[in-house]
Amino acid sequence: MTKTKKTVSFIIFLFFLSFVLFLLLAEVFVYPGVVFNHIKVPIQVFLLISVALIIFYKVRYPYLLKRAVFYITPFILFVAIFLNIEERLNFPNFVFSRYHISLAPLNYLLVFFAVIFLRTILDSKKDFRNNFSLVYALIEKFAKSKFFFSLEKLFNPPKTKLSLVLILIFSLVFSFLIFKENFKAKWSMIDDHETAYFLGSDKKILFGEIPKLLLKTEVGNYGKALRFRPSYYLVRIVESALWRDNPFLWYFARFVILSIFVFSVTFLVSRYFGLLSGIIFTLFIMTDKYWYDIWARLGPGEIYVVLGLSLYSLSLYKILNGKPKSLFFWLLFLLGGILAIGSKENMVVLALPAIYLILAHPLIIKDNKKGLFYLSLHILFSFFVFLGVFVAVSKVGQNFYANDVNESVLLKNLVLGLRNSFTGLNLIFFPILLISFTFLRSKKRIQFAILNKFSLFLIFFSYLVYLSQFVFYSGSWPSGWRYDFPGILSKYIFWLSSLYLFARAVKGSYIFDKTLKNFIVLFFYWFFFSTLLVFVPLRGYYTLIRAQENTVKYTNLFTENVLTLAREVRDKDNRVIIFRADNPWSYEPIFSLERFLRFEGVKNKIVLDYEDGDLSKRDRLTKQLSESLINLSREGDYENGFEPFKEIYYKEGNCVLVVFSKARIRQTCSLVFDF
User: Fold this and answer.
1) What does pLDDT average to over the chain?
2) Edge to edge, what strands does the sheet with 606-610 contain?
3) What is the pLDDT of residue 84?
4) In this structure, are residues 64 and 8 in contact, taking their beta carbons and an 8 Å threshold?
5) What is the pLDDT of residues 247-259, one digit of tens each?
6) Among 331, 380, 395, 547, which one has the highest count of C-beta atoms within 10 angstroms of its own C-beta?
7) Distant-in-sequence contacts of 407-412, Cβ < 8 A, 24+ apart
8) Helix/strand/coil (H/E/C) assignment for every residue in 128-193
9) Burial class (CB in 10 A: 0-12, 13-18, 19+), 564
10) What pLDDT does 652 receive?
11) At residue 43, does pLDDT exceed 60?
């Protein structure tokens, strides 16, 4: 190497070194934790580029590239470990402050060195067995043991019908154990009032009334309502007609849906990673905290999305694996997609698997004209839902959550999603995907991609679902609530798909023999699912079970109070019921209680006494809610059972006061209820 090249190389190295030292000093003396938060994504991207260069660069590296990759990357990652600060004591002038150090970047460092090791094997003229004879001898001896054989069988897909019975038993037992508290619950003030509204005071729905009721919901405001969930309201009204005013039957239906979901997840994972792996994966995903906001309630649309996705996934698996001519599975695929998309608008992305089937599997479509018809209906329904929401949002310039929606905001949220997806999806799986292609000869990579096109599509699709949540929820995601579904679930699917593709690449590699291939695949499977199993007891199901206990306590109290209030006023039509509130978050409880009182046969006059002293300080959403309640108080809403409020109702004395959220009481009545 010439003297000039060495000088340039040394200058570049000093530049990187100075840059990292500057960051280190800035962290310690100026803005602890802030600087690294801005540069951690570029560091991770730099790592991915380095890994890709090591894998795919076909000739010997230029000296500068080699210096940058092999020296700068580990050093930056080491500093990244130190700079990932989460806590510092309040000693601004003291250098040796207390830091809470995260070792997450260590994963990336290990992957980096693993790739260098693999590249060394690739560049070697001798095979792995000759270069690492001692290591191979130990692996070969272990691979011939009975323990290895038994362990290998655990990850083999089950082939007997007995496995279906075991999965079914597991699904029912596990679902019951994490759901059983709900069977004691009654009506809730949140969401359940729609059931009371649909049933009315006669507490029944004739099936001929369903279209009329459906048109009173978002379905009758296509292109005007900021939300459009036709499947959700159709199924909810049908359920109201079936289960009527029996909360136990409503919760039992949710138990059945949960059991179907647990069965579908366990079944599908077991078909690729073995029965035990399927059970472990299901146990793990159900430890996520957001499930409490789905299974401890009756009303969330995510419940129907869970059912729709279960039917959708099972039918898609059957279509791609031996049952493409079955009309039943095509119909199930369509119904599952319509149920999921029509229950939550961000599920319109389910149109992509339908498009994938048409483009990537022309032979299946060619032999199944009815299947093509169902796929076309599925795609058209997705577009129909998307268009309804798009038109409504375009008219007002904001979404249902009162967040601005325009090109700049969408781009900002998309960039935020791209940045957060690197850490949220766990960056270590990106190098794993790159490593998968390391094992293949250059000429066979395209063939490998074609043979594993569904795995590659699933990786892309799960990443897109995860990314899209940042756009749908205006960057405020994950939230820890039900809105995390299905985005968080897509992250786990991304992991599984990456692991499966990695295993397929190892088995198709030219570097290792059969013994070593089996060992590598088994090791990674064991490590991944063992890690998930460790987290099951650590995370547990406390949040879900505790939420159900609270639901039982709250719903029984609410139902008892509603019945008590109804008894006090039902036969005394001259008594005016005054709702008193001063908080915009009382919006849904106010309409909910009115509907439940009408549901129990109360015909008394209901008025709202509402004021908001903090109206000018509210954000856009709460301000809109507060202004709606102010207008309801002044003008009334006869269609929803409210009359205009008048101060004289207090003075007459023959009134019943209902106080929401501990609102300030200006005047009182002979009877007072707190809700």
Assistant:
1) 83
2) 606-610, 576-581, 655-659, 671-674
3) 47
4) yes
5) 999 999 999 999 9
6) 547
7) 409/474, 410/471, 412/475
8) HHHHCHHHHHHHHHHHCCHHHHHHHHHCCCCCCCHHHHHHHHHHHHHHHHHHHHHHHCCCCCCCCH
9) exposed
10) 75
11) no
Cβ–Cβ under 8 Å, residues 480 and 488: no
Confidence at 339, pLDDT banded by 50, 70, 90:
very high
Q: d(Cα 383, Cα 371) in Å, to the nearest integer?
A: 19
Residue 542 makes CB contacts below 8 A (sequence gap 6+) with none
Question: H-helix or E-strand containing 76?
Answer: helix 73-83
Q: What are phi and psi of 572, to 5 degrees?
A: -130, 80
Beta bridge partners, 398, equal: 404
Sign of torsion over alpha carbons 119, 124, 126, 129: negative
| Residue environment code for 298-327, b if the CB has 16+ CB neighbours within 10 A, otherwise e | bbbbbbbbbbbbbbbbbbbbbbeeeebeee
Distances (CA, A) of 83 to 13, 17, 87, 106, 664: 20, 15, 11, 12, 49
Highest mean predicted confidence (pLDDT) among 44-48, 484-488, 639-643, 646-650: 484-488
Sign of CA dihedral 261, 267, 270, 272: negative
Which pLDDT does position 448 carry in this prediction? 85
Above 80 in pLDDT, residue 379? yes
CA distance 380 to 351: 9
Q: Is the pTM of this model over 0.70?
A: yes
CB-CB contact of 508 with 257 (8 Å): no
What is the Cα–Cα distance from 437 to 455, expressed in whole angstroms?
14
Short-list 345, 339, 368, CA closest to 257: 339
User: Quick one: average pLDDT of 496-525?
Assistant: 85
Q: Which helix (H) or strand (E) holds 330?
A: helix 327-341
pLDDT digits (tens, 9 = 90+) for 573-604: 789 999 999 999 999 999 999 999 999 999 99
> Which DSSP state fits 298?
S
Compute the distance between CA of residue 380 and CA of residue 59 in angstroms, rounded to an integer: 49
- Whether 21 shows a pLDDT value over 60: the answer reads no
**Mean pLDDT to the nearest integer, 233-246:** 96
Q: Can you spell out the DSSP letters for 382-422?
A: HHHHHHHHHHHHHHHTB-TTS-B-SHHHHHHHHHHHHHHHH
Structure tokens at 93: 């002038």
**Residue appearing with tokens 């205006």:** 474
Mapping DSSP onto H, E and C, the string for 620-648 reads HHHHHHHHHHHHHHHHCEHHHCEECCCCH
CB within 8 Å of 531: residues ≥ 6 apart: none
Contact (CB, 8 A) for 271 and 303: no
Beta strands 576-581; 606-610: pairing state: parallel
> Pairing relation of β-strands 655-659 and 606-610?
unpaired
pLDDT digits (tens, 9 = 90+) for 70-96: 555 555 555 555 444 443 333 344 343
Identity of the residue numbered 616: S
- The pLDDT assigned to 520 comes to 83
Distance between CA atoms of 505 and 436, rounded to whole angstroms?
5
The alpha carbon of residue 47 and the mean position of all alpha carbons in its chain are separated, in whole angstroms, by 27
Q: Which residue has the tokens 């009654």?
A: 186
- Segment among 14-23, 52-61, 299-308, 500-509 with least mean pLDDT: 52-61
**Count of residues for the chain?**
675
The b/e string for 182-205 (b: 16+ C-beta within 10 A; e otherwise) is bebbbbbbebbbbbbbbbbeeeeb
